[in-house]
Amino acid sequence: MACIEKIYSVSALVGNGSCNANCDFCAGKYLRPEAKENKLYDKNLEAAIKLSARYGGWSLSLTSSGEVTCDSDALIRALKVYQKCANQGAYFPNVNLFTNGILLGDKEFCNKYLDIWRELGLNNIAISIHNVDEKEQAKVYGLKNYPKLETIVSNIEKHSLGVRGTLLLRKGGVDNYKKYEKSVKILIGKGINNITSWPVGNPDNTRNKYTPSRLSLFGIRSWLHLNAKKCHGHAWGGGVFDYKGNILRYTDYVTKHNPKKDFVRQLVVFQDGTVAYSWIREGALCIR
Ligand code: SF4
Predict the structure, then answer these.
(1) What are the pLDDT digits (tens) for 180-236?
(2) Cα(66) to centroid(ligand 1), Å
(3) What's the CA-to-centroid distance between 89 and ligand 1, angstroms?
(4) Taking Cα atoms as reference points, which of 29, 19, 206 lies closest to residue 101?
(5) pLDDT (tens digit, 9 = 90+) per residue, 240-269?
(6) Ligand 1: distance of its center to the CA of 87 in Å?
(7) In what helix (H) or strand (E) does residue 134 lie, and over which residues does it extend?
(8) Of all atoms in ligand 1, which is nearest to the CA of residue 100?
(9) pTM for this structure?
(10) Which residues line the pocket of ligand 1, CB cutoff 6 A?
(11) Phi and psi, residue 31, nearest 5°
(12) Do 10 and 267 touch, CB atoms closer than 8 A?
């Protein structure tokens, strides 16, 4: 049994779990019953941030069992917890909001909230992209229309926040290296030059009918190794690549906690206040 030497990041589920989209493959649905007010949540979020910062962590991800931007009050509360920690020295250079991006296409919404979020410590907004064509993206999200990605980028950058793309690898969508390469090039053309990808799957790290084949994923990883320069690897697999001056990152959706390893990829703060060493809680409890 190894001692933990490093806790790289914190992922916090924020908000009431509501969502303005309706995806067939939604992995957040199973967590929605937990998305209620919880007295322990703020205290345990603070503890998780401080613990990770103490163990060399550098990144806080704000996500949801639904869509975070649909519950801005909860997001502001979570960012206030982070701001308190940062003021006491538990500072993360990367504070990222993960979103489907739908509300970020609305200028009024951005004018109302983005400066507030930034002043509380948010650095980047990561847009989940299933298809670089907005009409196809709308279909995946179960919508009539999806905003133009260029509009989303411009609305976010206007408020001095960084834009990231989460290019999801999904069977029938981006599921081979040719589509990956094409999508990356289009996203760069649309102003998104920091792109993370992972294959969609079940929250317990198993494959499902939307997960691309192992061979296709191998093809994408091989394309990265052949066409981009590796900047650094992740202890849990995958890594960060320099592709013509743009950042491409390949990782897994979920990493199961391994008590024999001396690192934790992320502390996950669930909405019932549980803090676990991974998205798979069993055998990975940290704070209750
Ligand atoms: S946007 Fe995310 S939370 Fe909303 S339905 Fe799709 S997968 Fe689920």
Answers:
(1) 999 999 999 999 999 999 999 887 778 889 999 999 999 999 999 999 999 988 877
(2) 6
(3) 34
(4) 19
(5) 999 999 999 998 777 778 888 888 888 999
(6) 33
(7) helix 134-140
(8) 1
(9) 0.94
(10) 19, 21-23, 26, 28, 66-67, 100
(11) -95, -10
(12) yes
